[in-house]
Amino acid sequence: MFSRLRNRIPQLAGAAALLFSLGTQAETLEVPVGAQGDHAMVEQVRGLKKDEVNSRLGEPIGIQGPVGEPAITRWEYADFYVYFEWDVALHTVKVPRLIA
Questions:
Q1: pLDDT digits (tens, 9 = 90+) for 27-66
Q2: Which of 22, 39, 83, 91 is the most interior residue, by most CB within 10 Å?
Q3: Alpha-carbon span 81 to 99, nearest angstrom
Q4: Which residues contact 95 (CB under 8 A, 6 or more apart)?
Q5: What is the Cα–Cα distance from 10 to 17, expressed in whole angstroms?
Q6: E strands, 1-100, where?
Q7: Half-sphere exposure of 70 (CA within 13 A, CB side)
Q8: pTM for this model (two decimals)
């Protein structure tokens, strides 16, 4: 009796999985990232040294870091951030704005 049941376990598991999957549904959830405001032009600074970025964009409002290895630093400007690895600019990112 148990040997017949043991042989049917894969079939029963497959049927149970099929029944459970029929009861699940997927729903699309849209989360607003934020209004970016006007399309302020952010100058391309990738690959520039910190002193070159400073001469092009001016003094940052704030500086976060360095953190980790390699050292990552974030310079904060009014509308965007500039990320550095050691002394070289990696990327610029717009500051997210909440939708009112």
A1: 775 655 554 444 445 668 889 999 999 999 899 999 998 8
A2: 83
A3: 20
A4: 76, 78, 79, 80, 81
A5: 11
A6: 62-67, 72-76, 80-85, 88-94
A7: 8
A8: 0.57
